[in-house]
Amino acid sequence: MTRLYNDPVNFVDEATAGFVAAHAQRVCQVPGGVIRSTRSEPGTVAVVIGGGSGHYPAFAGLVGQGLAHGAVMGNLFASPSAQQVYNVCKAANNGGGVLLSFGNYAGDVLHFGQARERLIREGIPCEIVAVIDDISSADREELHKRRGIAGDLTVFKVAAAAAEAGYSLEEVVRLSRAANLRTRSMGVAFDGCTLPGADDALFHVPAGKMAVGLGIHGEPGISEQDVPSADALAELLVSHLLEEVPDGIETVRGARASVLLNGLGAIKYEELFVVYRRVHALLLEAGIEIVEPEVGELVTSLDMAGASLTLFWLDDELERLWRAPADTPAYRKGSLNPAPPIDTAALDIPDADEIPAASQASRAAARCVEQALRATREVIDANVDKLGKLDAIAGDGDHGIGMQRGAVAAAEAAEQALARGAGAGTLLRQAAEAWSDRAGGTSGAIWGVMLNALSLTLGDDAAPQAEHYARGVAKAKQDVMEFGKAKLGDKTLVDALVPFSDALSQRVAAGDDLANAWGAATQAAQAAAEDTQTLKPKLGRARPLAEKSLGTPDPGAISLAMILDVVHRVIATAD
Amino acid sequence: MTRLYNDPVNFVDEATAGFVAAHAQRVCQVPGGVIRSTRSEPGTVAVVIGGGSGHYPAFAGLVGQGLAHGAVMGNLFASPSAQQVYNVCKAANNGGGVLLSFGNYAGDVLHFGQARERLIREGIPCEIVAVIDDISSADREELHKRRGIAGDLTVFKVAAAAAEAGYSLEEVVRLSRAANLRTRSMGVAFDGCTLPGADDALFHVPAGKMAVGLGIHGEPGISEQDVPSADALAELLVSHLLEEVPDGIETVRGARASVLLNGLGAIKYEELFVVYRRVHALLLEAGIEIVEPEVGELVTSLDMAGASLTLFWLDDELERLWRAPADTPAYRKGSLNPAPPIDTAALDIPDADEIPAASQASRAAARCVEQALRATREVIDANVDKLGKLDAIAGDGDHGIGMQRGAVAAAEAAEQALARGAGAGTLLRQAAEAWSDRAGGTSGAIWGVMLNALSLTLGDDAAPQAEHYARGVAKAKQDVMEFGKAKLGDKTLVDALVPFSDALSQRVAAGDDLANAWGAATQAAQAAAEDTQTLKPKLGRARPLAEKSLGTPDPGAISLAMILDVVHRVIATAD
């Protein structure tokens, strides 16, 4: 939904004012819309685009060198008036005639048509290319009834690059018509947007459903189905578009096309890239050469949840115009002098998988460590929800699944290292890397640091004694405090780790065996972990929202105590 | 929410693969993240950035000439591991040392710190600048505890531009620390994002509320309040940031700053521009010179509904580095040779407001026309909801408010034109322009065309007779059919307009007076309007969703019949 506005009646005017203020280097405002604020070559064709507002970067975001000369900006999702079109054309005119281009909607056809007549009456040559890329909006036999969606961009780009190159109006029209006939899009929608001040969305798609072919203003689509996987959506869109190869493309194999995967507002970049991955593979499989694709937000409908895929089938002339540089508020290409590509084969990428030779004694200790990591994995598996809920009170709730990812990866790495004859030090190092690599987050880092510290004191040669463990834990404590910049009393895992390490060192120095010393130290850690219940907000600044965490212990300290306890049992029962 | 994914476990890997496929000209994948696919100058500093995924264009979208040399990509919202950081650094290293930069989060601090130690051990000089722009995340006295949000970009940009210019690691560190200390941001949130496969959002903000200072992963903010107007939000953000002017800025008046207004995912461009309009004005009022601002999505959190404002306080050196060109998948500046600015004073912008002289008789007729337009406004006002509901069945539901905007504007323009002595022709022309200008959309266009046609036949000289009206209506019919490309039987307004025009012409030709002829023709139009009930889907293609419109008359035909009826009453009671 649209949340930020003043009086909804002024939304478009105010958005335009802000847009022009932010992009004064490239655009300036005229009655009815915007034009370039930079000079164009006299005698060249002016490309004027436009339509309703709410589709940024269409249309105003595409005004600038190498792209449109002007954009007419109607009210939200409403065609601009003929007067607006006329005004923008008069201001954008460079003396070489005007090409008007816009999505093929009835209101736009009417208003741009009226403005064209008036310009012609006044002696300004003017032609129209209404974009018709949306294959869901009418049958192939009725191309002229199809609507324009994200394929607007390819037509505008070709027209403008031709104009920039000094082509005549006739040539600009010929090329943009060719681009129009070679551009095909298909869209899907998951939910509609809500206009500023409106009570409800413009339309809804039932939860869990996807509307196929729904227009960017909610115009009826062709079917409704369950929301598919990203790959299945890619397959749906590509298969439909490959059934719609335009006239003039003899074989798909060997054809060149640009590809636009467009998000309509709330379908975000990472999702689009997941879909694009499969689209790209499918097009390559079909033998298509992909030229300068675009993945992002090219034509939106406020925050509508939807996406569309466009194929723009190229020939030499269209490819050159598509590749030509452009510099607008929202679309830039061809900047800088491109540097040459690197040789990826020569990259320095380290191999972390080596197993050095180890003593018999260290390999025996490695078995015990592997058991401890297996027990760790089990206790975390059993407590993943509990830890998640604890973390959700003050944090982002991912402590449980983060610990689980790490513990699973560490146990698996340990098992493999053991099978390959690793000593205790190498086994712990590989487990440490696996943990921090897979878990991510703060807890992953801390556990990587701790296991690494232990790895260095155990090594692969000596038969580890109780004091090796005590020294390893002490190093872990020190490293965690240093890397994490956490002090005792900060209500973190450090509050449990410090008493554990101190007790372990004391008892080992006093002559206890590892099992007894570890057991006593674990009790100290458990008590300290419970004591991390925050009694005041954690951060320095007074912030009411942090108060909800009062009375909750630190999940990192709790999971540490949990793990120390199961490791104690492994040590106590070891041969 | 995140809708498009396959197995959520693979989301980041698949997004990365799609990203790299789409942007192979600029980036290539290495274990742990991406690096530039273009060669950098040997011996220069490599700037490696990174953090959790889910924040595109941060971080991978910022890799390319003039910006980062590599980006380390952790799991969703989770720090990458030290191994990942190390791998990317090894691959990105140009022999001039490595600058690591990232948002100041505990996990990132840990992992980048570990990787730095390893690089230094291996003889690769490496330094760290953790970005701390979020003023809500800790007090000014504890800058080192602050988190990094959209201000990441300014620090990365300065570091990278310095590296590109061949500065030493020491100089790159000095400048990026300076940028870090001169960058201040503040964010707000309206709702959280939902991770792929998760049941619920990472966090929620109560409906109608705004969380101030909430972190981009949902970290606690400083307060909660009702959602403000766009202007009030601008005032809130600017006032807080102006209380946080960094050391080294002596007076705000005369200072230079860049401004970043960042959307976190679901707050879209038009909203951001509305807010920016006020931000820009407030900063100018404070005497700040604004340098190359950015309004858009720079650091997102999937589709989180939130926004942040960043001020980057410049000095000469930082300004030069901020303005330097860059060419990455998501951030490009400094392309092309900029063309000179235009002279806006010389633009050809027409004046539509002229009132030509008119005969007494035409001015009398104008009074009648003005009454008819007033009656039109009243009947539309009374039926705005009814028309909206009718249109919502098959269209976008805006017919009611569109007609209202148009009728109100036309009646107001007519009243003004009458007061200024306009004849019937001029009054109708100005009403036509006002209608289509304010209403927008298809209906606005059609009513503009119809009133314009009538304007041309009535003119400002003759005393209009019944046949002038009949001829004007016939021209309106012809123009609407021509511009709209609609035929009789298409179930549009044309289906009512044609019988109206035909009956009016016949009755006038047969000698009826205007009132009688108009009344009889209105009856024909009313019957025909009801008859526009669609019996089969309107569009050529079989589409199940269009079936819901069966049995509903066309709202444009219905509103036409409504208006003809009230105009008949005006004519019948005219002097």
TrEMBL record, chains A, B:
It comes from the Bacteria. Keywords: ATP-binding, Kinase, Nucleotide-binding, Transferase. GO terms for molecular function: kinase activity. The keyword ATP-binding applies. InterPro entries: DhaK_dom (IPR004006), DhaL_dom (IPR004007), DhaL_dom_sf (IPR036117), Dihydroxyacetone_Kinase (IPR050861). Gene3D superfamilies: 1.25.40.340, Dihydroxyacetone kinase, domain 1 (3.40.50.10440), Dihydroxyacetone kinase, domain 2 (3.30.1180.20). Residues 7-331 form the DhaK domain. Residues 367-569 form the DhaL domain. This is Dihydroxyacetone kinase family protein. It comes from Salinicola endophyticus. The lineage of its organism: Bacteria, Pseudomonadati, Pseudomonadota, Gammaproteobacteria, Oceanospirillales.
